[in-house]
Amino acid sequence: MIPLVPGLALITGASSGIGEALARALPPDRPLLLTGRDPARLEALRAELATGSRPVEIVVADLAAPAGPQAVIEALGERPLALLVNNAGLGAWGPFLASDPAREAEMVAVNCLAPVVLTRALLPRLIESAGQGKGRSGLILVASTAAFQPLPNFATYAATKAFDRFLGEALSQELAGQPVAVLTLCPGATRTRFFERARLPGLRSHVMDADRVARLALGALGRRTLLVPGLLNRLASQLVGLVPRPLARPAIRLVMRQMLKKETP
Ligand SMILES: NC(=O)c1ccc[n+]([C@@H]2O[C@H](COP(=O)([O-])OP(=O)(O)OC[C@H]3O[C@@H](n4cnc5c(N)ncnc54)[C@H](OP(=O)(O)O)[C@@H]3O)[C@@H](O)[C@H]2O)c1
To answer: In ligand 1, which atom is closest to the CA atom of 91?
Structure first.
């Protein structure tokens, strides 16, 4: 990991999975501001990571509600910010017509709107903190390999992750002259609570550990702008871009239909 300027590392979705792993993987002297909805899990992580004089704060906030991102911004106050990780996210597997409309809206709010609101509010702070520390700060957006193609039966999720990927890749170019390293992280299947919560069937093979994904992400920050962890994930995400869309779309539909059949025999 490149050395970051002094300041807090703010991680959304730190109460579980990849966000929790990122919090653990940061150097032990980095002050942390951890957010999520689950106070017990956040408090357990705070107790684990707040060793010595390291400050670790938690903010319980629902990022699906407009007040959520605002509460996180207010918790940071005027303090220097060295790293912002927009990681909180959720999925919902199944046919769009049968989906829960509230869940679809929640997905867009947490996966897309919250990262925009947080990044727009806190990017000036990242730049300012980097200037004061005479070094670099970091911005990570967690997208997914789902961002590389439309996914029938996982339509809204893939669309939200394409949004995250485009946002991150565009910002990495816009901010090329600024002292902020931008990384768009596109994990493939990762062992977290995501699958169970999204009610996703199958995909038991080629699943990566969240700790490994977190270590690779922090190692890539400042060295590259986009990371797809894992060779197979990288190959698949590049290959799908090479196949003409009119051929790729029905092929993806068949794969996703098979997955749906597995779930409902
Ligand atoms: N696991 C995978 O296979 C995979 C693959 C590619 C990309 N990703 C992406 O990785 C990111 C992290 O997911 P994960 O795999 O670590 O899943 P996870 O274990 O389910 O963790 C999701 C995190 O997001 C938080 N979150 C969800 N809804 C929220 C809301 N309304 N307000 C605030 N926080 C909310 C959760 O907080 P609470 O638990 O406190 O509710 C939790 O901390 C997501 O953006 C996901 O899209 C995951």
So the answer is: 47
